[in-house]
Amino acid sequence: MKKLRCDRCGLELTDIDEIDIAFEGMAAWHASARARGIEPRGVLPCKHYIRCGGEIRPVTGDGVFWWRRWATGLFSR
Ligand SMILES: [Zn+2]
To answer: What is the 38 CA–ligand 1 centroid distance (Å)?
Structure first.
């Protein structure tokens, strides 16, 4: 099962609707991050971004980040 997890504080998004919303917002987050000179690591900034500075990244059920492979497939075309 896939879910999203903050790479700093460990906050998890497991609800499929929340995950869909996160991916819908991803392009806007990436654009605003790059505009500020930040290379985005994940799909979205964490809900606690001000405190933890983390980003929400996709993980499998056993906690492996699959973001890189996913991103490669999406962006390398
Ligand atoms: Zn966090």
So the answer is: 17
